[in-house]
């Protein structure tokens, strides 16, 4: 791995958000959900496409808090515009375990 500086890391806006809507994404090349995530009053809501269907159903995702990068430029994924990157850990079988706060946290709180 290439080392980065503190200034490099400080540019990444990792924030807590709550998933408020989950939709199917049949047009995705790899199975994915379309998520609408609430990041609080300062940031608002953002959309994300997340390839997390192996371990998470719509029902388990709704209301779940996650950690996401909120300052990437939007990325067009087929017909969907993804506005943030939900973070997680890729396992050996390529399933993704979400990175989540272990205690309820105010939406928009930055990772420090």
Description:
- The protein is mostly beta strands and 112 residues long.
- It has a single domain (14-98), classed as Nucleic acid-binding proteins (OB fold (Dihydrolipoamide Acetyltransferase, E2P)), CATH 2.40.50.140.
- Helix content is 8%, strand content 38%.
- It contains 2 helices and 9 strands.
- The chain has helices at 6-10, 58-61, and strands at 14-24, 33-38, 45-50, 65-69, 75-77, 80-82, 85-86, 88-90, 96-98.
- The strands form 3 sheets. The protein has a 5-stranded antiparallel beta sheet with strand order 3-2-1-4-7.
- The longest helix has 5 residues, at 6-10.
CATH level-1 class: Mainly Beta
Q: How many structural domains in the coordinates? A: 1
Q: What is the count of DSSP helices, taking H or I runs of 4+ residues? A: 2
- So, CATH architecture? Beta Barrel
Mean pLDDT score: 97
Rg for CA atoms = 14 Å
Uncertain segments are none
Main β-sheet, in a few words? 5 strands, antiparallel
What best-fitting shape do the alpha-carbon axes yield?
globular
Distance from first to last alpha carbon: 21 Å
- Give me the side-by-side strand order of the main sheet: 3-2-1-4-7
CATH superfamily: Nucleic acid-binding proteins
Number of strands: 9
Strand content: 35-45%
The run of helices and strands is HEEEHEEEEEE
Share of helical residues: under 10%
CATH fold naming? OB fold (Dihydrolipoamide Acetyltransferase, E2P)
Structural class: mainly beta
